[in-house]
């Protein structure tokens, strides 16, 4: 994205899934177990332009910064799971074990963050467990997101009881996350996070340094050439 538009237009990105979840690949029905099949369609070079999310923020030095994401940005508990997963992976050496152990730890690690958000005409000023803003499926938290419609899907999750939290994990795994009573979905072009103190921020599965002050998440329409199956 630092290149000129004509340079970007000459570049196409593809993916061979590896690891767990891979929900952005699954959106395009790319099977991580069929590597040869995936390579075959990549060679055929069928291109679909996709959106790119962007978060604009200030860092600790007061510099204006921006970061792009293809799938989603998570603020709060999900970002904390990412952090735990990174730490436990060093201990277990396994992606799957580290992910499961991180979820287990979170069952006993109640988390909520005082946030003030503006989504469309709604202002949310309350404690929130986790916030997912997805241009793509968002690890199952924004399952209806379409990465080429110029919109962001947003899931705001208020803090459930422990039993409801277990139910939420089950609904997440089975693709029915939005059915949970603590999940409040939105669709918008922009989200303003006026405050979210001490809440970790993860972009496409990687933690970033927590922004200082308000920050804004928006979407850029169809700016990346992405290789998809026939």
How would you summarize the topology of this molecule?
Elements (H helix, E strand, L loop, with lengths): L4 H5 L2 E2 L9 H5 L7 H10 L2 E12 L5 E6 L2 E5 H16 L2 H13 L5 E7 L2 E7 L1 E5 L17 E6 L4 H12 L9 E6 L1 E7 L4 E3 L2 E3 L6 E13 L3
Parallel strand pairs: 1-13
Antiparallel strand pairs: 2-3, 2-13, 4-7, 4-11, 5-6, 5-10, 7-8, 8-9, 10-13, 11-12
Radius of gyration: 18 Å
- Label the overall shape: globular
Helical residues, percent: 25-40%
* Uncertain residue ranges: none
SSE arrangement, N to C: HEHHEEEHHEEEEHEEEEE
Amount of beta strand: 35-45%
Oligomerization state of this entry? single chain
How many E-type strands? 13
How many H/I helical runs?
6
- Helical/strand content category: alpha+beta
Task: Profile the largest sheet.
Answer: 7 strands, mixed
> What is the straight-line distance between the termini?
26 Å
> Quick check: average pLDDT?
84
């Amino acid at each position: 994205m630092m290149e000129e538009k004509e340079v970007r237009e000459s570049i196409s990105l593809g993916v061979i899934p590896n690891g767990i979840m891979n929900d952005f690949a699954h959106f395009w029905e790319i099977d991580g177990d069929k590597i040869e099949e995936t390579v075959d369609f990549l060679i055929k070079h069928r291109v679909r332009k996709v959106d790119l999310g962007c978060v604009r923020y200030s860092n600790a030095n007061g510099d204006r910064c921006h970061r792009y994401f293809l799938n989603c940005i998570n603020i709060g508990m999900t970002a904390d799971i990412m952090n735990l997963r990174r730490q436990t992976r060093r201990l277990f050496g396994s992606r799957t074990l580290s992910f499961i152990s991180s979820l287990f730890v979170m069952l006993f690690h109640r988390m909520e963050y005082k946030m003030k958000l503006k989504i469309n005409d709604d202002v949310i000023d309350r404690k929130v467990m986790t916030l997912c803003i997805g241009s793509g499926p968002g690890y199952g938290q924004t399952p209806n997101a379409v990465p080429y419609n110029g919109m962001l899907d947003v899931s705001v999750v208020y803090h459930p009881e422990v039993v409801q939290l277990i139910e939420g994990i089950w609904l997440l795994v089975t693709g029915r996350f939005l059915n949970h009573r603590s999940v409040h979905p939105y669709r918008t072009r922009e989200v303003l996070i006026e405050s979210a103190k001490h809440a970790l921020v993860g972009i496409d599965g990687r933690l970033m340094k927590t922004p200082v002050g308000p920050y804004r998440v928006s979407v850029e329409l169809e700016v990346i050439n992405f290789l998809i199956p026939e």
